[in-house]
Amino acid sequence: METELPTIFSAKRTSFVRTSVIREILKLTVENSNILSFAGGLPNPDLFPKDVFSSVMESVVRENISTAFQYGDSSGYEALRTQIAEKLTDVSWVSSRSITITHGSQQGLDILGKIFMDSDTNVLLEDPVYLGALQAFSPYHPNFFSVPMEPDGPNLYWLEEILSQNKIHVFYANPSYQNPSTYTWSLEKRIKIANLLDTKEIILIEDEAYRYLDFEGKVYPSVSSFRKRNDLTFVLGSFSKILSPGFRLGWVVVPDLYRNLFTAVKQGNDLNSNQFSQVVVSKLLKTMDFDVHLHSIQSFYKGQKESLVSLLGKYLPEVKFSLPEGGMFLWVEYPKGTSKELMEHCLKNGVAMVPGTEFSPASRSSSFFRMNFSFLTKDVMEIGVKRIADVYRDINT
Amino acid sequence: METELPTIFSAKRTSFVRTSVIREILKLTVENSNILSFAGGLPNPDLFPKDVFSSVMESVVRENISTAFQYGDSSGYEALRTQIAEKLTDVSWVSSRSITITHGSQQGLDILGKIFMDSDTNVLLEDPVYLGALQAFSPYHPNFFSVPMEPDGPNLYWLEEILSQNKIHVFYANPSYQNPSTYTWSLEKRIKIANLLDTKEIILIEDEAYRYLDFEGKVYPSVSSFRKRNDLTFVLGSFSKILSPGFRLGWVVVPDLYRNLFTAVKQGNDLNSNQFSQVVVSKLLKTMDFDVHLHSIQSFYKGQKESLVSLLGKYLPEVKFSLPEGGMFLWVEYPKGTSKELMEHCLKNGVAMVPGTEFSPASRSSSFFRMNFSFLTKDVMEIGVKRIADVYRDINT
Q: Where would I find the Aminotransferase class I/classII large domain in this sequence (chains A, B) (predicted)?
């Protein structure tokens, strides 16, 4: 499954580049439509507000052509930055000037890796961790540390141990409906850890790409909103899960102190973010009833989650998972057999999910799989779960 | 004019990050509409094919919603890659698999910097050089060398001297209508240098962002098309100048050997390029008569160039420049006074252009300015040139 990178003339950092099995699986499922995929993290296209898309595009071409089709500010389109500052962030010191629009929150991770990570930077990750962060950070070759996660956030004993024994410079965390575990930090842990990071003067990269995917419409305050050290906290957001990944837009809330540097790095990376998509998204936010739209996503995903939970209960009662409060995944432990073997047999039997090893900072083997429930219909999920159950029984008898 | 980057906790590479005076000037001209700007590199919005834009957007939303608004392949949208391979490249070994779509050719430069450039990589640049390349490469901190440019390409004596005295790993060049100088390599130099690079086993990063902007519709064969070492040559292209910068799309022709690595780095940078814009651009290329469109851009810019040339002849006969064959700029020598002084006075007097120092690999002072002619109307250019002439006379009397 691994893509081998050949030995060729290249910079030293390329030996730390990580490929993504998820994207390989995604490719397989595109090429072979018989494979039912729980592997992706694709939002359900039925939730894209098509009618509004059409009328907004049309009005952008009619009214905003000289802005929308031109180069733009490296920090992003001012109107959109203002909307994000007003509606989609909760840190008290935010203004439109603190927002930089990026090509997905993934680009925010790359820029922050470039800004902060050297071979002598100590970076703390969650275990399991979002694979895209490993891909963004690894080429900069920092020293990775990791803290074991529990369903309500990092294990505090281990967190304090790690922070007392090492000078950690940066903590990358995904506190709400984490990808892959869907674990969500409790309010208590958010406050406690914000204080701890202040005391230890640690930079927090808080990835809030899933912030608005709570099944009940709850929105947790960000960890950053509890920090006193406003100069040491970055919050990443994304339109991919709440509007569409097709716009490839996210943002980073950047402290004043780092604003010029962040913008200069963004310029070197790709000058500015897609201006047309920025103007369209800004108009969409103005035009549509965003709360109603969010509610429809949240209740749809809640139904999808309930379907997968009940299918697993029916066909695979031996697997274990904790019930998520939101997000797009179940983080499922298959107690018997190795995940590599299970995955290979699943793919042969026409069903895909992502092995937990992919999300392990140390690439440790894992009995967990990430199962997506946002994309397949209930009927197709049932066929898929049956295929997994067949394979799992085969391997373990 | 320089943006100071504060001394803050950050990776060592950030001390090599270069800010762009052009973007600062762009911001000034947006904030103060009294400043007439020859500084940008903005395509003229009148040349955007608005009517086709509208109908194509509408059809994408109607027909391609599940592709256009979803995540996509990290290498890019297959249909668009095929179109680029068939229509917009001239190296014999190209196929859709060799094309990776990037967020502007600028992102191609960043990815190639990440792949190739370490503190022990020797990188040869043109002098003057495209500023964006300096911004992309500098954080990776390679050793820069530079070859003096003549209107028909690199000075061959110096090129051979440099290559015989140093192990150059990578040559970054912009052979057609270069930004800023608009110099264009002759056919003879293209062939000669392709052979030289083969002999010395040097990787070529050939930036062809301006390839289709010849005033007479001529298209020069790429230097890469003359190379025998297909594994050592990358060609960058862009839709910014031929369709619109608003789509923020470019591409890189990547040799087989580097394909997996290039895609893995692209993934870490931002997962994939804006899928919606890719589908739109692909449909645009199918729908519109591209040759007619290119012809209208080429003849419009030719007229604009002639206007600026005649205005300079009338009001500033003492300045010097060579007549370009294409592109969007004149590279103008103001023989007396320093460019820093002239620029400051110009900005005070409501006119902007970019000082040559910005394009010097070694930041040497320069008596050249880059003057854009694509954006202002003839009447406004006349007011602008008069303002520059006033300032220039003031300083030099």
A: 52-388
